[in-house]
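fwd from M.: "can u put these together and see what the complex looks like"

so here's what she sent:
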Amino acid sequence: MAIVLGICMLLASTARAQSLPPVIGSPGLAADYYRGYFYDQVSFFTANTPVIRNRPVEQLNFEEAEDDNFRVGNVATYYSPNRPDEFSAQFRGQLYVTTAGSYTFYLGSDDAAYLWLDNHPQPVAFNKGDSFPYREMSGTCTLTAGLHTLRVDYGEHGGSQGLVLQYSGPDMPKQLVPNGVLYNQMTAAILPTLLNFEAVADNLQVALNWETAAEENCTEFVIQKSRDGKTFTDLLRRPGGATTVKARSYSAIDPQPAIGWTYYRLQQLRSDREPVYSPIKAVEIKPIELTVSIYPVPNNGTFYLDVQPGNVGTAQLRLLDMSGRQVYEKEISLTNGARQMIEPDMATGIYMLKLTTNAGTFSRKISLGI
Ligand SMILES: [Ca+2]
Ligand SMILES: [Ca+2]
């Protein structure tokens, strides 16, 4: 009887969970601001009443400053004009982790700050006390993919103030925790917009894929790229799904990434708010050594090229005579090592062959008709 009852309760609970209307996650965090300094006491935030409640904050990126960079206004005490001191704040929300693994969090602050994940009794990273200038402390933890509750307790005592939260993970470099993986609802029953954003090297191209669990007022996705991880330019666009609670997947290709490291991020444009950003992904394109076979030798003026690796996209073939003048040009498609027959119809003689690909330029002297 007890077993049957247990199963019934489970079914009832499942049915109730399924009947909840889906709530689309809202980007960023929620902030409460308090008068006074918290002196590293977590209980400060329950013992006191916030003056500003549930203010939306896109991300924790309050760079160190003397002026009112937190926009706390009269919540702070002013011993001199535009120099806010003695206030505290609590930032709350959920962090969506796209890839399971080890994450390091970098908490920069002036004065004290504590980062808590999943209500664990120990903070992941913390800056204790108020006797230091702005500094960054870090902590590492293993996270499952999915939503994790996040809370940052912060306080400014005197002098300048600042608070910046960055992270690095198994598939991404150190960066500001972007608003696209932060959700300001504390309830677990939310649908995150961005499930993942992947940028993967595929020979001399980069494959870009992303998935959404839900979208809200999403007009367009813009893939942005950068050589230094700081200054981004638009690469390509895809129309968004407006407002939907159906999962969608997208894919795109960067056909011509430079050799070396390139940084990619996904910008989601919305009709109702400022853009939302994915984590930044870094991709390294390694230079490829081309092996080019040219045969037969001798030949009757027509020859064959065999280029390995054979999947480096299109290549520009040029022939120069011995005075350096270009006498022949042909675009060839190098796919899967297919050999290329070249019929340049040139006078008998010695030529310089140049083959230019994404991977670089190959040069060799060849004889035609000899
Ligand atoms: Ca201050
Ligand atoms: Ca300070």
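replying to her w this: The chain has two helices and 31 strands.
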